[in-house]
């Protein structure tokens, strides 16, 4: 008897050790996949400038990850559990690494980045960027269409698009197969703890991703091959492109390394049980097998009919699609919004996003779970809590409309040359009496800030006749368009934002942190309502359909159609050598704010209509038998197979929510 107990203890130790190794490897995979996702989301502005893309195409790149994910999600969901799951996860991690490397490849195939400027880098002649009134030749960009066709970078963005699709394909098996492996071979009482560890990894990854992006964007894209002392732009300039490729190489290495441990893990592990419970477990497994066979034989269409006849499920699905659209819009373009609205660099915006938004989300999830357990919240109460907190979050976000900061005044674009506000419908013209005979290039974006605190599109358009200094310290004098100062001088770059903008930025960040906490606090009660609305046999199909609909109707189209709307708010597009438009340099901050906050507010506002109907339905048809039991207590009363199913679907929803938000 003692030998048998000793063998069981030894076997149990080995099994626990292997499952913990798998858990540690899966946590690393979660961190690496969310790291690469958050990093790419943070450098979208850099890709826009590097490849001279419109925001519409950048939105397409952002949504391409979901396209790749959808290509294999059905295969993985139905057949992955019957195959070597650790091996499939390893292949997925390495495929993500290949995707990240492919996204960084354009940097090594392209010539050094050239930003548009009127300042000559190779000649001492000042005629390229100063007002020379006696000059008769007007310097304009070349109009040979072959210049655009021959530019290698004109199609290099397709590498980023394809790489993101491949990254989406690689991410597919990590989440469902990892969770099912833990559920199958870990002790039942340990599964919630292990799943909690995975959720922690899902928060750590984006935090590292935001910090990495902030670090990389601060460095110049061609660092090491270009003398940065010769640059006339700074990270706060809208022509600046950071070292986006460097972070993608880091993400590629992290994903490949995270897949290595899975190569050495077995296809399956023996279930850890005591000898006295062996017969019971074997009987349950046989029953489980029979149930699976019956479930497979069930016709697909009756289940679909049952789901769409479930009013709560349908209403929750509509609510999720509307709110996910709003979340994708908000977090995909948050860095761009902060840069344009409050006049900070992209690097600073990314850093502040990570610091102010991710920790509150983590604390919100923990607090939500604690409240549900501590106060034994039932389904009806959970619906009230989720709706009330979400509505509070909605009203907080609406207050962002009052946290405003106007455009930096640019002569000829946002204000007249006298400094008065331009009429929105007034034709913008950067040529006026003070620079009409200067033979200036009127499309090149090379801004200078006059000592009258008014920006001009270039030193020539400011009427400047002389210059001093080099690099970013270059200055200009005798500027005929700067009439309100005695020196009539200007310096490179847009004028800095007013002190009031810094204060508004702090208000916005604090409000964003509070909003993130309230949102995540309401998430757990929302999951509970969703799960309890489904019958056991409907859960797998119901959750899968939920994920499919939110990705197809929110994750893919939202960044694309919102990118189109953002492009309409552009005040001035960059100019390529062939004369075609490049990336947008400055947006109308008022219209941008209206689009960014207004569209997300409308989508979330409409989503409360089906959410309110859910509350009314539960109020009338709620089952009192569940009034004094928590979700966990209800699950304990069910059989082990159903318990596993609920835990799996809960994690799927959590991961989907975090992925959509970050």
What is the approximate shape?
A: globular
* CATH C-level class of the largest domain: Mainly Alpha
Q: Strands of the largest sheet, in order across it?
A: 2-1-5-4-3
Structural class: mainly alpha
Please trace the helix and strand order, writing H or E for each element.
Answer: HHHHHHHHHHHHHHHEEEEEHHHEEHHH
Number of helices: 21
Helix content: 55-70%
Number of domains: 3
Distance from first to last alpha carbon = 55 Å
Named at the architecture level, the CATH assignment of the largest domain is: Up-down Bundle
Contiguous low-pLDDT stretches (5 residues minimum) are 8-13, 122-126, 135-143, 273-278, 289-298, 624-662
CATH topology of the largest domain: Growth Hormone, Chain: A
Radius of gyration: 29 Å
Overall number of strands: 7
- Biggest sheet architecture: 5 strands, antiparallel
* Strand coverage percent: under 5%
What value does the average pLDDT take?
A: 78
Family: Belongs to the organo anion transporter (TC 2.A.60) family.
GO molecular function: bile acid transmembrane transporter activity; sodium-independent organic anion transmembrane transporter activity
Keywords: Cell membrane, Disulfide bond, Ion transport, Membrane, Transmembrane, Transmembrane helix, Transport
Protein name: Solute carrier organic anion transporter family member
